[in-house]
């Protein structure tokens, strides 16, 4: 008497005959469900489960390792697009540059603030509720009509962002890096608001100074050769002094301080399961401080 051999089928496709088992769950799988593994084949579900269980590689500061500095590319692209917008419509500068307080006249012109201004003049700037200027000003640069220095403003800033931004992003990961950049830009604008609220400012320099501070703190934390790093910081601080008579030193200093605070939190948070929470809490605390300072100063200016 002859015995019939049992026909085995794929667990996902019951009508397809299969003779290969998944090396992980031992279920039969057809060619469409097979995935190459280190030994044999695995089914689709086991491959997905394995991917979830694999721990993602992290940088020394807790960020996910990225193969390309995508955020740096995007930031440069946004700055260049904003500059092209300025070339098409110069009024973008007056509308979005950082300004604590100012006046718009009946002729559409922009004037210095006066507490007792005529009724046909109206306030503009942060004092008028235009809080977006705290960030939008960091994506604008001197218009080309300012001559050679106007062009050099964006060229030098973007070259610096390209050189140092890629290094910082690779160490921090995209989320931490973007947070650092935006908080540095905001820190620069808030210091401008506190010290020179009547002075219009613009440029990515505050954020870039924050990246410079991050570069220094990270190098110290990693025990890198500080020779080149110290030379870079010396040049950055020298430019901070020189720029006092040319550009907004308040924005530079504010970005430097904010970037330093954020990176200290990144670099020295305990390497335990709550590291990300501690880093995020430090960033939220800095943001809260900047908001409180902005509200207090705007209230004072409006009085």
TrEMBL record:
Cite the Pfam families for this sequence.
Rhomboid
Signal peptide per UniProt:
none
Q: Which SUPFAM superfamilies does the record associate with it? A: Rhomboid-like (SSF144091)
Output the superkingdom of the source species: Bacteria
Gene Ontology CC = membrane
Membrane-protein topology? Multi-pass membrane protein
Where does the sequence pass through the membrane?
A: 65-85, 147-165, 177-195, 201-217, 229-246, 252-269, 276-296
Q: What are the entry keywords?
A: Hydrolase, Membrane, Protease, Transmembrane, Transmembrane helix
Listed GO MF terms: serine-type endopeptidase activity
InterPro entries documented for this protein: Peptidase_S54_rhomboid_dom, Rhomboid-like_sf, Rhomboid_protease_S54
Domain Peptidase S54 rhomboid, by residue range, is 129-265
| GO biological process terms held by the UniProt record | proteolysis
- Entries under PANTHER family matching the protein: PRESENILIN-ASSOCIATED RHOMBOID-LIKE PROTEIN, MITOCHONDRIAL, RHOMBOID PROTEASE
The record's similarity note reads: Belongs to the peptidase S54 family.
Record's protein name:
Rhomboid family intramembrane serine protease
Organism for this UniProt entry: Streptomyces guryensis
Lineage, broadest ranks: Bacteria, Bacillati, Actinomycetota, Actinomycetes, Kitasatosporales
